[in-house]
Specification:
Blueprint lengths: L4 H8 L2 H9 L4 H5 L9 H14 L1 H11 L22 H22 L9 E4 L3 E4 H25 L18
Helix pairs in contact: 1-7, 2-6, 4-5, 4-6, 5-6, 5-7
Length: 174
């Protein structure tokens, strides 16, 4: 098992800054590009991360710690951000994400006892019984997955422009 709360927090606290450095100040053509119909732009992904901060990670951790397996996690709408952020800028979303993440990490530090809580369980609506350490580990992997997704979406904007170098650019593989 690789899970360590301190190391988990190292990644979680860097995600907002990583995305801010990558996306702040980019033109709207970068922020709104996507991989085709039904796929997400960088703007959509940051909106999704905000929804996770509001309605997924800490609320589910609280359910595990207070209700255990007596209550199933409320479902998480992974697509709600698609209708909520019209008129906002990427900078506004990034700022909101950073504020929510800061508060959530403080809550995480206060709620979780690393000596006793990691094996506590709750009930996921799709997966069934899950452990607290699995929920927190997924939070990290989820961040990294979406950072990778954003990088891929941005790179694919130039997939037809790189010419023969596409053969050497894994990020552009179909």
């Amino acid at each position: 098992m690789n899970f360590q709360l301190k190391e988990t927090i190292e990644i979680l606290e860097r995600t907002p800054q990583t995305l801010s450095h990558l996306l702040t100040g980019l033109s709207s053509s970068w922020i709104s590009c996507h991989e085709g119909e039904g796929t997400w732009s960088a703007f959509d992904v940051v909106g999704h991360l905000i929804e996770g901060e509001r309605n997924n990670w800490i609320p589910r951790i609280k359910v595990i710690l207070t209700k255990g397996e007596t209550e199933t996690f409320p479902p998480f709408d992974r697509f709600s951000q698609l209708n909520q952020n019209a008129g906002k800028t990427i900078e506004q979303l990034l700022s909101e994400f950073a504020e929510l993440r800061r508060a959530n990490l403080e809550t995480l530090r206060q709620l979780v006892d690393p000596e006793t809580d990691f094996e506590q369980t709750g009930v996921h609506p799709e997966f069934g019984v899950v452990k607290l350490r699995e929920q927190i580990s997924t939070w990290v992997a989820h961040d990294l997955s979406h950072i990778s997704q954003i990088a891929r979406v941005l790179a694919k904007r130039y997939q037809d422009d790189v010419g023969p170098w596409k053969a050497y650019l894994r990020i552009l593989a179909d």
